[in-house]
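Hi support team,

I'm opening this ticket because the web form for multi-chain structure prediction keeps timing out on my end. I have pasted the exact lines I submitted so you can reproduce it. The total is 620 residues across two entries, so I didn't expect it to be a heavy job. Is there a limit I'm missing, or should I split the entries? Thanks in advance, R.K.
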Amino acid sequence: MSTVITPSAADAELAVQAVQAASRSEGYWAGVWKRLRRDPLTIVCASILLLMLLAMVFAPWIAPHDPYQGSMIRRLKPLQTPGYPLGTDELGRDILTRLLYGGRLSWFMGIMPVAFAFVIGTTLGVTAGFLGGKVNMLIMRTTDVFYAFPSVLLAVAISGALGAGIFNAILALTMVFIPQIIRVAESVTQGVRNLDFVDAARASGASGFTIVRVHVLGNVLGPIFVYSTGLISVCMIIASGLSFLGLGTKPPEPEWGLMLNTLRTAIYVQPWVAVLPGVCIFVTSICFNLLADGLRQAMDVKA
Amino acid sequence: MLLYLLRRIVYAIPIAVAVGFVCFMLVQIAPGDPINAIVPPDAPADVVEQVRKDYGLDKPLPIQFGLWLWKVCHGDLGRSLATGRPVWSDLSSAIGNTLTLAVCASLLGFALGCLLGGIAGTFRGSFADRIATTLAVAGVSVPHYWLGMVLVVIFSVQLNWLPAMGAGPGGSADWSWDWEHIRHLILPMVTLSVIPMGIVTRTVRGLVAEIMNQEFITALRAKGLSTWTIFLHVVKNAAPNALAVMGLQLGYLMGGSILVETVFSWPGTGLLLNSAIFQRDLPVLQGTILVLAMFFVTLNLIVDLVQTTLDPRIKRA
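Hello R.K., no limit was hit. The queue was backed up. Here is the completed structure from your submission:
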């Protein structure tokens, strides 16, 4: 007996499969989570970052010493000194303790500017992309001007003119990242604006604000978010760089970039102790970078 | 296309003026009276008033900007507060040093990036691809000022092969192409080259992979062309984009070399900026940033023009 399936039977079979698949499908975010879980590199990076975050949050309980209390008789001890596993700095303060506390400010200065720029840049970029015309012209041409500066130079210029300080550094970095996020937000919004469902919403009488809130934001936030995650790595390097130049945090505050700066003179005495804060910056930055790559793939956003 | 080139050049002018305006505003946003950026703090009150009048600082902001722009266009960037010399005189020698460093670093980064990216793009998914991709990610995520310190620790402190500081023997700031000077160039150059290396590797890998997937490569293979000839075809297709990325990287390095120059005490614009920031020498800060930003604007323009001219696939009107 032959098992020839008639076309109509095959169609029915397919339809049944489709219904089954539909009842099994979990939606977008579940899919993203599933893909993320299958990506070992991203999981490793996320775990490292989480560990670092926990270590910083619980620094007062973990840290063996006081981050500000130094002693002249134990300056620049090498690695594996009893009681000071990572040595001491030029003022005799425990490096491990200062690295644990220092991460707080480094992370703060690496993440806050991107977060601020995300909010401001998305607002301006979506407005420009959605409204078009003169508003677009005004916002995008202003963006072009700030885009005409290399990012490190713009950060140094603004914080150099404003003077040293955490607040000024964060302000400068926010200014650096706003134009970059505006560009991405504007271009993805342009892509969504002319899609059929937006026209349909408009035809059904929805106001511009409602269309943006309900129909546009949901479609553009993902790509902008992924792009912004990638900026955290850059931001952390520039932020620590500003502190390294003496433009960010001020001594005796523990911060990785500033620690690198003050330990710079110690490279002839304790070279391997002096480069430790940079290892922390490097690890954080590379993890954020790979995490952003993983997110981009999992969320299926084109670069 | 000629029309596009002309329009692109004309469009660069308002951008340049606006960039000038941002640099002008740097002194305005600085805390305190902008007059403090011109006269030393201990100047008597009548001198301050005289200078205020001479510099037009008693006039409204737009007119001040006009006056400032007029001076800048005539090559007058003001005088340094710290040394009293015209800003341009210190800046001109510093720019040469920064340019030497940035050009060498981007050439090295470009060469390495093309090599790594080419291999990675040709053999996607292979072990070599993984190494190249890892190096690329490391290159863009490494804090290069820290990398500079590590290189100094290894090659200057431990091995004592290369000098750790300066651009020449005895801290001389004048560059020349002899071995003594080149020895000083090696470490900062390698340090600075990791960023363009990472970015060029990523770009070239993507370009090569995309080109290798296209039908004309299959056709060339079917025709029986040698690997070398196919390679030349790939190069020809990837070159305009790769060169454009490279050109922009040169601009980023010019502006971003401040950190590396600080680590190596390289007598360029970065070191100048650094000391200007510490001495609150706003005219030097403003002048240096203006010149570097203008360099970047010009470079952007050149890259765009060259890319449009080189690549027949780009049709812009």
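A quick check on our side: The mean pLDDT of chain B is 83. Let us know if the file doesn't open in your viewer.
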